[in-house]
Amino acid sequence: MHEDIAKVLLDAHTIQRRVRELGEQLSRDYADKNPVLICILKGAAIFMADLVRHISVPVRMDFMAISSYGSGVRTSGVVRILKDLDSSIERQHVLIVEDIVDSGLTLSYLLDNLQSRQPASLRACVLLDKPGQRRVPLKADYVGFEIPDEFVVGYGLDYAENYRHLPYIGVLKAEVYENARK
Ligand code: PRP
Ligand code: 7HP
Fold it and tell me: On the chain, which terminus has fewer CB atoms closer than 10 Å, C or N?
């Protein structure tokens, strides 16, 4: 285990098993819909890569980059689009693929923004749901795991751009971000 991790919350095997289940469910729900999956960079990149390989119906992929956390552990509350979609989603079945819903501000912004582009349908699939910190009421259509109110990293999730490569999801030691503030 990495020395900055206090404990492993979800090990690699548990994550892979759940991602497979989500892929199987999406394959049933989106049969004949040819959906476009929108990966929200950077956090969801690893989840998206694993998820699509468990989907057995045709899908397309597009990418959006959003930022609200800067390099900290608290949302700035201001959501910015850093990279927009390459293609129009008008009349398309759209599935947002996100790593985590925490305050809910990012997903709420995305749902409003993408809904205004008039997709045929719009849903969200998130790996992690941390309901304890919600600032806007929100429930994703597909959720991998509900997690407690702790700052987690790994499997795409970062703190100050580090730890995304870890194959598991772990709780970051508080001293790591407390030291960074000194
Ligand atoms: C993280 C995460 C979600 C968002 C969730 O993104 O990937 O997009 O925060 O938090 P919220 O529910 O409180 O809005 P971040 O801005 O850190 O960008 P990243 O994906 O590039 O790490
Ligand atoms: C964003 C985010 N990034 C990494 N770990 C968490 O626990 C997070 N919550 N919101």
Answer: C
